Amino acid sequence: MVKYGIKGFPTLKVFRHGNDEEYHGGKTTQSIVDYMKRVRTMAITELEDVESAKTLIQDSGVTAVAFIADREGTEWASFNLTWTTMMTKYFFAATSNALVAEHYGVSFPSVVVFKKNDDDSITQKKFEPVFVKAENEDDVDDDGWSHAALSSFVITASL
After folding, report:
1. Which of 7, 11, 103, 147 could form a disulfide with 81 if both were Cys (CB 3.0 to 4.6 A apart)?
2. By the 8 A CB rule, do 126 and 60 touch?
3. Alpha carbon distances (Å) from 135 to 76, 123, 144
4. How many CB atoms within 10 Å of residue 120?
C-alpha cells in the first residue's frame, strides 16, 4: 500500500506502462464505469456515420467531437494534444463525414462538446476559436485553435 500511495479505502488506480494514475472521479457506479471505458479506449473514436455518432454521444457522459477533414492541419494537432492531456476525463471522437456534420448542424473544421444531462437530453456546445499568441511551442495556435483554448472549452462545456 505504501509503495503506491494508498492511504485509505476505497482507492481505485489504473496502471499503464508501469505508471499508476489515481481515480478522482465520482463514486457512483456509472461514473466509475464511464471512467474505465475511457481508460480502456484510450483512442480518439472515429465516427464513420450518423448512427455511430448518435450511439457514442448517447452512451457517454461528455464527448468532445472534432469535425475535421484535414488530419494534417493545426486544428487536428491541437485536438490531438487536448485528447492526450484529457483522455481519462472525457470521451474524444472525430469525423470527416459530411453527413455527420450536417446532422449536428456544424461545418468543418469544428469541435463540439456533447453532454448527456440527467434527463437523458443532450446539450451541444461548439468551440469558438480564441485568437491569442501561443506562449510555448507545445501549444499549437493557428487561427485560434490552441491546446489551451480547446482544453478550457472542453472543461467549461462539460459543466
Report:
1. 147
2. no
3. 19, 32, 13
4. 7
8 within 8 A of 1, measured Cβ to Cβ: no
Residues 125 and 75 sit within 8 Å (Cβ to Cβ): no
- In the three-class reduction of DSSP (H, G, I as helix; E, B as strand; rest coil), residue 92 is classed as strand
**pLDDT tens figures, 56-68:** 999 888 999 999 9
Residues 74-83: pLDDT tens digits? 899 999 999 8
Enclosing H/E stretch for 42: none
d(CA 61, CA 83): 16
Residue 13 pairs with which residues in a beta bridge?
22
Count of CB atoms situated within 10 Å of the CB of 103: 14
Decide: 39 and 92 in contact? Cβ < 8 Å.
no
pTM: 0.73
